[in-house]
Design goal:
The structure holds three protein chains of three kinds. Chain A contains five helices and seven strands. Chain A is of the alpha/beta class. Chain C is 63% helix and 11% strand. In chain C, strand 3 and strand 4 form a beta hairpin. Chain C is globular and about 80 Å long. The chains are: A alpha/beta, B mainly alpha, C alpha+beta.
Chain lengths: 180, 152, 662
């Protein structure tokens, strides 16, 4: 092959490179809509929310020196119903410390929701105007964040939690954070 | 919500009754409102993927529009207002990707491609033309003349 | 039973396509006329079978046969008839059947007109097309079968997405596919030429009508899609640089380049291997577009429901089709005879510049579209590439092209004279200055870039007119001679003038978007809203029942002083089946400007949010697209392009040499 032929090979080489990249896009589990949180490894935003049904206020001061999970939910959110058995199971087994933030909801609706599907939360803050969710960089509900002992966000999950997420992500995360 | 949109097999069009800026959100000060609109147009709506928050009907886009207007009223510069959003949602929300090492290839390749193409075209045009006909020597000229005469 | 017949017909079509590939390729290799003739019959049979399969699917939608899963998932019984028909391609599976149907239409057309071509070229083209058909028929049958039954059949279907319940769905996808898939013909010609090892002027002539036809359809398809988005969206955007839009723009840019470079091959017997590469790339970009839309690797508002199996299948098809053809290119293209030398300042030089810029623009769109995926793949940050990127790269690249499009047609072949051309263009310069002054005056010193854009549009349009006047010797020769020249001009040259003029019209429409004015307000009954010197009065609001939706319909009057300009009735439609609300805008146009009105949400005190826009010249964007496509059609109707004529002339070894043409 002479150098004169080389330029004619360029399109093929470019295409092979393209095909490799496109195949990366098809890898199992790749989802272009899944975005990493911008707050990973950054301090959790500070907030101070009214408690549900007249309970004490919920602020990030409550999280001191403990690995906590914060779950954004709402009574009007259908996927939240799907994830509630998973949350209830975690709460029953006492695997994680879970706080809830009730997103853009009427408190009475939220109470009904918790009566019907169970209340896995240690305490619940009411994010009436959704600003706390925006401070967390949340897209909607449900969404779950893990905060380590130093108050930094270490993990975020968009959408309903499943048993699969618990075994593949939450439990390893707890081991990692517990060890450090 | 995002899944639902994707599953909605939309061929062309936006997957909801997009309704952009609402009259109630708009600022009374037209200069400030114009700035807010310009900022909103540069930020991507996170839950609807390919619209700016200024154009989107999504709830979160509405909240962000309101926040941007609040920030501007409190005296934030445009850059500060944008930073407020990117601090929370990352650079992904910038419709104009920042010019940084990771995007040099993106930003400069159009012009590099044009330049390389132009260089290639130039080389192509400068290819050595077929050797020009050498002037006929005396003998050949005589031969030619004879041929022409024969023709007549 | 009927749908099973369709399923069977599609399987049979696959068998026929296999047969077609075998017959044509063996026939061409052995130079066996009988085999090649049989291959042409197979192409027609393949078309008939796919048409039958498509017809059974249409039938299932017409009678709302919900025992067919595809119908149950995408249609419902209470729906206007038109939308029952268009639902057929409003979903992934059905649209793939339309895709292969159009592929077969082009295949049958090549076979039908094949008499005029050398039999081996025709056979190889049909062979390549059969191979493509095999790939996509397998794709449908194995991963996206619309002919499957549901048991038990549901009582009612899930309905068509309300956004898609629009006449736009009737025309936009079929034209888009006619364009995308039509590029397969030029692709097949290119591969056939590589196998044959020969590209000459006659080849360029044969491939041209097909390229033109698909280019016209793609132009119309893109224009219609943009218009559809414009009137559906509620705020009047018409282009979003969305990955799926880009997927249609890339083959258009490459196809436009191909149309122009094929002229150089035809007239000057040079740029051959580049033209072959463009023909391959144009269809490859159509295929990549298909992959992007249907695999879910990119986020887009248009995405189909995704399934990784489909993505992998299409990727394999891509590798075979594109990788195979490019490998063939790498192997055979160097053996194509090198073309003649040419001067940079000449018609062919201008066409080369056109190709250089269009190819760079196409590459820019490609990179912008795929960069987020690329960064992801190398572990970089998650980024968005939105309109600001394209505004800053694509637009500056287009400007030199728009400037050059005015001069190029005035340059002679072989050796042009730029100064002479510029002198002849004085009228176009005058048009530029006049247009910019008018735009500046009417917009009260509006945005500078828009005024400049109007100037560029006037340049392109003015130059197209000057070039035509030049050719007819208008104002320089007696009228009788002008008339004689006008009649003697080949249609293809009128086609070029029209297409370039259409481009100018589109550019004007795009540039003028900077002049638009908007008013957004909460209106109560009887209140008025000033918009761009007009008054909009809110007269009433009422409920309105559609076949499958209920709507709030506003009544508005647009007033110019006291004169009534138009009555407008925008709606907000609620589709109970999908629980979705869709805005139906009201547009009043006089073709020079649109008045665009959308109704928003009510507040709790009887006020309604209203968005009103005055959009000058916006209709020009699509009118220009239609003129461009019409120019292509006029060019296509040129007697000399008819396949038969080209063949006979080529057989005699004489190509007509006459005035300029595109």
């Amino acid at each position: 092959m002479s150098w004169r032929r080389a330029p004619y090979l360029l399109p093929l080489i470019a295409f092979v490179a393209l095909a490799v990249y496109l195949s990366r896009g098809l890898a199992p589990g790749y989802n272009p809509e899944l975005l990493p949180s911008a707050l990973i490894d950054k301090p959790a935003p500070s907030f101070d929310l009214a408690g549900l049904k007249g309970e004490a206020r919920l602020s990030n001061q409550a999280f001191a020196d403990e690995i906590v999970f914060v779950n954004f939910f709402a009574s009007w959110c259908v996927p939240c119903r799907a994830e509630s058995p998973v949350l209830m199971d975690l709460a029953r087994r006492d695997v994680i410390v879970l706080y809830g933030i009730d997103y853009k909801d009427k408190p009475e609706d939220a109470e009904k929701f918790l009566q019907q599907y169970g209340d896995p939360y240690r305490r619940i803050g009411v994010d009436e105007n959704g600003r706390t969710a925006i401070d967390f960089g949340a897209y909607g509900v449900p969404e779950t964040y893990a905060i380590d002992r130093t108050g930094r966000i270490r993990w975020r999950h968009v959408g309903p939690l499943t048993a699969d997420v618990v075994t593949k992500e939450i439990l390893p995360l707890l081991r990692e954070l517990g060890a450090s | 919500m995002t899944r639902a949109l994707a599953v909605a097999a939309v061929l062309l069009g936006i997957a909801h009754a997009a309704f952009a800026v609402e009259p109630s959100e708009m600022l009374a000060n037209p200069a400030l409102e114009a700035r807010a609109e310009a900022i909103g147009k540069q930020l991507r709506c996170q839950v609807c993927q390919n619209e700016s928050i200024e154009e989107s009907g999504a709830d979160l886009a509405h909240d962000l529009r309101v926040i941007i207007r609040e920030r501007l009223k409190e005296g934030d510069s445009d850059a500060q207002a944008i930073k407020y959003v990117t601090d929370r949602y990352g650079d992904f929300v910038l419709l104009k990707p920042p010019v940084e090492p990771a995007t040099y290839l993106l930003w400069f390749s159009p012009f590099v491609i044009l330049a390389v193409g132009a260089a290639g075209a130039w080389l192509y045009l400068r290819r050595r033309p077929a050797p020009p006909d050498e002037p006929l020597d005396l003998n050949q000229r005589r031969q030619l003349e004879r041929l022409l005469l024969d023709d007549q | 039973m009927i749908i099973e017949l369709g399923h069977f017909a599609l399987i049979l079509a696959l068998a026929v396509a296999l047969l077609q590939a075998g017959l044509t390729l063996t026939g061409a290799a052995r130079n066996d006329l009988n085999l090649m003739a049989a291959g042409r019959l197979a192409a027609m049979a393949q078309f008939a079978l796919i048409a039958l399969a498509f017809a059974t699917l249409v039938h299932a939608y017409f009678v709302s046969d919900f025992s067919v899963a595809n119908v149950a998932e995408n249609s419902s019984s209470a729906k206007p008839l038109l939308y029952k028909l268009t639902s057929v391609w409003g979903n992934h599976e059905g649209s793939m059947v339309l895709w292969v149907l159009i592929l077969a239409v082009y295949g049958a057309a090549v076979a039908w007109f094949g008499d005029a071509m050398p039999p081996r070229l025709c056979a190889r083209v049909l062979g390549v097309k059969a191979l493509i058909a095999i790939g996509f028929l397998l794709f449908i049958l194995l991963t996206s079968n619309p002919f499957l039954r549901l048991s038990p059949a549901p009582e009612e279907g899930m309905g068509l997405n309300p956004i898609l319940q629009d006449p736009g769905l009737a025309f936009h996808p079929p034209f888009l596919y006619l364009g995308y898939v039509g590029n397969s013909v030029a692709f097949a010609f290119a591969v056939a030429a590589l196998i044959d090892g020969r590209v000459d002027a006659a080849w360029a002539r044969w491939v041209r009508p097909w390229t033109l036809a698909s280019w016209c359809c793609l132009t119309l398809g893109i224009a219609m899609g943009s218009w559809w988005a414009y009137y559906t969206l509620g705020w009047g955007g018409w282009w979003f640089w969305d990955p799926v839009e880009n997927a249609s723009l890339m083959p258009w840019l490459a196809g436009t380049a191909l149309l122009h470079s094929a002229i150089v091959v035809e007239r000057r017997d040079t740029l051959k291997s580049w033209t072959i590469l463009l023909a391959i790339l144009t269809f490859s970009l159509s295929l990549v577009g298909t992959f992007l839309v249907r695999s879910g690797v990119l986020t887009s508002v248009h995405a189909f429901a995704h399934d990784p199996r489909r993505g992998i299948f299409i990727l394999v098809l891509l590798c075979i089709a594109i990788g195979g053809s490019l490998a063939l290119y790498a192997w055979r293209a160097p053996t194509l005879e090198p073309g003649g030398v040419f001067a940079p300042i000449s018609r062919e030089g201008a066409l080369l510049l056109n190709n250089l810029i269009l190819a760079s623009c196409c590459a820019t769109v490609f990179i912008g579209t795929l960069y987020p995926l690329f960064l992801d793949a190398v572990g970089g940050p998650k980024l968005s590439v939105g309109y600001p990127f394209f505004d800053r790269t694509f637009v500056p690249l287009m400007i030199p092209l728009l400037l050059a499009v005015g001069i190029g047609p005035l340059l002679a072949w072989k050796r042009g004279d730029v100064l002479g051309a510029l002198q002849r263009l004085w009228a176009a310069f005058a048009a530029v200055i006049a247009a910019m002054l008018i735009a500046f005056y009417l917009s009260h010193g509006g945005p500078v870039l828009s005024v400049l854009g109007i100037g560029i549009a006037a340049w392109v349009g003015g130059a197209a007119m000057v070039e035509l006047a030049d050719r007819l010797r208008l104002f320089r020769a007696p009228w009788a001679e002008v008339a004689r020249r006008a009649l003697a001009q080949p249609r293809a040259s009128y086609g070029m003038t029209l297409a370039h003029f259409g481009l100018a019209v589109t550019v004007a429409g795009i540039a003028a978007s900077g002049f638009e004015q908007q008013s957004i307000a909460l209106l109560h009954l009887g209140q008025t809203l000033p918009v761009a010197g007009y008054m909009l009065r809110f007269d009433g609001i009422g409920k309105h029942e559609g076949v499958n939706f209920t709507a709030d319909r506003g009544d508005f009057t647009l007033l110019d002083g006291t004169r009534v300009v138009a009555q407008l009735a925008p709606e907000r439609r609620f589709f109970p089946l999908q629980q979705q609300t869709v805005s139906k805008t009201a547009i009043h146009t006089n073709l020079l400007a649109d008045f665009y009105l959308a109704l928003g949400d009510p507040d709790d005190k009887g006020g309604w949010a209203v968005r009103a826009y005055w959009k000058p010249l916006v209709p020009f964007i699509w009118i220009g697209g239609v003129i461009m496509a019409f120019g292509g059609a006029v060019s296509l109707s040129d007697r000399r392009w008819r396949v038969g004529v080209a063949a006979r002339r080529a057989a005699k070894g004489a190509l007509p040499v006459d005035g300029s043409r595109v």
